[in-house]
Specification:
Radius of gyration of chain B: 22 Å
Strand content of chain B: under 5%
Oligomer: heterodimer
Low-confidence stretches of chain B: none
Number of domains of chain B: 1
Helix content of chain B: 55-70%
Shape of chain B: elongated
Largest sheet of chain B: none
Distance between the termini of chain A: 14 Å
Distance between the termini of chain B: 39 Å
Number of helices of chain A: 3
Number of helices of chain B: 6
Low-confidence stretches of chain A: 1-21
Number of strands of chain A: 0
Largest interface: A-B, 51 and 51 residues
Mean pLDDT of chain B: 91
Largest sheet of chain A: none
Order of helices and strands of chain A: HHH
Number of strands of chain B: 0
């Protein structure tokens, strides 16, 4: 905390600004450096926790998506072979999977943005909580 | 008791932190968007089931789904750039040159005949999954 009085005498105004400025009596005192240190520590923990959660969910999601595609492609290929599905229809369905992959990529991008928003909200809470604790 | 030290740098840091926290990366959860997606999903899947008949047997249902698709897309697009992902999902779903709902409706109307059960089963699955992606994203957005 830079609340020590300055030893420099060249600028009495600067020295005064580094010491405690005139404040109203009875107002709460905030240890700002401690506040920021605490905030940084907690924000790091929140971000780490969210990133780990997101990674786990994204991996499980991607695997489920690929499994579903594999199973559908297998079934459709068999239906083309037994004549229940035309080649043209098969092609349309496979293109549908390509569009679905784009949809999923958009979902993932959106969910990343949601994560960022959640971290931001957690930061707001941290700011408020830390400020109250350190006053 | 001495008081709070309102130094400009400190005040700026707090204001900056609050501003950063307040700038959302994506639009919040919207119950209307969620309802549009879930309602239209049910309606679209019912229409796909009916596509074993020629399209001429269900002109009103086809037009209704096309209109609702367009309305949902315009609604999401109107929310601006922070809703880009959802708007693009609706665009993909309704694209008549694509291979999801919009593309299926075009194919059905162009061919002007009933579609095979195996094909309808596949389309139904793809369209259902496409709606599920939209619903999943909307439902996970931050609730105000």
């Amino acid at each position: 905390m830079s609340s020590k009085p300055s030893t420099r005498s060249s600028s009495s105004r600067a020295a005064k600004s580094r010491t405690e400025p005139s404040v109203k009596k009875g107002a709460p005192r905030l240890n700002f450096d401690r506040f920021l240190r605490e905030l940084k520590k907690r924000a790091k923990a929140v971000a780490k926790q969210e990133a780990a959660k997101f990674q786990k969910e994204a991996n499980a999601d991607a695997n489920a998506f690929l499994d579903a595609i594999k199973s559908d492609l297998k079934a459709w290929t068999a239906r083309v072979a037994d004549g229940r599905l035309s080649m043209e229809d098969f092609e349309f369905l496979v293109n549908g999977k390509k569009d679905l992959a784009k949809m999923k990529a958009l979902t993932d991008a959106g969910l990343s943005a949601v994560r960022i928003d959640r971290i931001r909200m957690a930061m707001i809470e941290l700011i408020i909580t830390a400020a109250w604790k350190l006053v | 008791m001495s008081g709070f030290t309102p130094r400009p740098g400190r005040v700026f840091s707090v204001v900056l932190l609050v501003l950063i926290a307040a700038c959302a990366a994506i639009t919040p959860y919207d119950p209307t968007s969620y309802k549009n997606a879930t309602d239209l999903k049910a309606e679209a899947l019912l229409l796909i089931e009916k596509a074993k008949d020629p399209p001429g047997s269900h002109p009103a249902a086809i037009e209704r789904v096309r209109l609702k698709l367009r309305q949902a897309y315009e609604y999401e697009k109107g929310k601006g750039d922070r809703n880009r992902q959802t708007a693009e999902q609706w665009a993909l779903l309704s694209d008549s040159n694509g291979a999801l709902l919009g593309g299926f409706l075009k194919k059905w109307l162009t061919e002007n005949k009933g579609q095979s059960p195996a094909f309808l089963e596949g389309v139904s699955k793809n369209v259902e999954q496409a709606f599920d992606e939209i619903i999943k994203l909307e439902s996970r957005k931050v609730k105000d």
